[in-house]
Amino acid sequence: MSKSFSLFILGGTGDLARKKLLPSLSRLFKKGYLQGLDKVYSLARSKREDWEKVACELDEGFGKLCHFIPFDAKDWNSYAELGKVVEKLKGQELIFFLALGPDLFGDAILNLGRLLRNFTNPRKVVIEKPFGYDLESAKRLNSLLERYFIEQEIYRIDHFLGKDTVQNIFSLRFSNLIFEGIWNNHYIDHVQIVALEKVGVGSRGVFYDRVGAIRDMLQNHMLEMLAFTAMEVPARMEEKFIRDEKVKVLKNTSIVKLIRGQYEGYGQEVGREGSKTETFVCAKLLVENFRWHGVSFYLMTGKALKEKLTQITVVFKSVPEGFTSLLDCKPKQNKIVFQTAPESKLQIAFELRPPTGRFIACPVETFMEYKFPSEFEEAYEVLLLDIVEGDQSLFIRGDEVEALWEVVEPYLDRQEEPFMYPQGIPLPEPAREFIRQEGREWLL
Ligand code: BG6
Questions:
Q1: Contact at 8 Å (CB) between 291 and 184?
Q2: What is the pTM for the complete model shown?
Q3: How far is the CA of 195 from the centre of ligand 1 (A)?
Q4: Looking at ligand 1, which residue's alpha carbon is closest to its atom 8?
Q5: What range defines the domain where residue 356 resides?
Q6: Would you name the residues annotated as active-site residues?
Q7: Positive or negative CA dihedral for 165, 289, 436, 301?
Q8: Nearest CA to ligand 1 atom 9
Q9: Burial environment of residue 128 by CB neighbours within 10 A (0 to 12, 13 to 18, 19 or more)
Q10: How far is the CA of 116 from the centre of ligand 1 (A)?
Q11: What is the pLDDT of residues 266-302, one digit of tens each?
């Protein structure tokens, strides 16, 4: 018999809840993964529409478990009312999902913490990104959480970790000797991690303008992809040891060069002409340890570009010069690409003799591709299931979130003008120039 639990979504009628959480929950429910689920409470100031109906349209059985509770995250009276609901859930595990604006995290944690002191139910608290605004505020949020919850009850979300491709970096590296053996500065020349987006800031303008690409993407998704690519083998394949290794590699990581851009029309779109917030960022990072000394990690992310592309490209060293002169051509460098968008796949590029012609000939680049099959439609399904089952391997630990902030901290809130780029272009020129200066090209 699975343990009984109820889920409380604070910010329960917001975009995240409507577009991601409820659909993911209903799919998991339909597949029979949420046997112990008793109720899903959506907590929000106003109902906006017939909430139960929305949930029922996803799935009738699931919809019957969904309820709406009027709630103001800043007002203690709302928590006192919530207490009356919790009282009826004797012995159940309570999962609180904070799908709120980051300015409400502090109030919600404080008040939930105070409320839950009156109950003995097992509990979990799930926090969306952005976790803090900088290192200082992240530390404050961590110490507030620690006042009321233990780390095993805290789930800090980075939805990229729910993606098959990101998890497969780990599997490919640590379950295959042929890859792990060459995963170091003897064979790898450099690594490119990109997350290019077609969308602009859309309806999130006011929020985004306070945040920018460094806080929105670099500090979390991009650095997590770097951590999975660069971490050492965990002492044991357990959540504690996996997270230990990510913290270790982040502690050795630093940004050595960074440029910021903004798409044309951004200031007008967010209602703040002259805003210096970046919508594009490109950086060179170094990981100073025995494995990675001398290997550059180039990270690039931006909005309002021509195509969506999210991928990690591990680029291997060139074959020796002497060999290329014998062949009278230069074979391309081998590459391993982990792509999450537009497709979820692994691609290996290597050089082979051309299909026609002589034995000694200039080789051609050949690709081997494997599309990751997935049982789940959304990264959130994977993460929600892990929360229910209590597996924290894919969540960010308190010291890890601080290590992530430490990497970007020197580059936050710089007042220099970002370069401007037209919307819809494949890549801004300064980004091309950035890597060209390093004697390299973006491999997109
Ligand atoms: C979010 C960022 O965390 O990730 C957004 O806040 C971004 O700005 C999004 O668009 C990208 O996620 P995905 O899964 O669509 O690549």
A1: yes
A2: 0.96
A3: 9
A4: 216
A5: 160-375+397-436
A6: 221
A7: positive
A8: 217
A9: buried
A10: 32
A11: 999 999 999 999 999 999 999 999 999 999 999 999 9
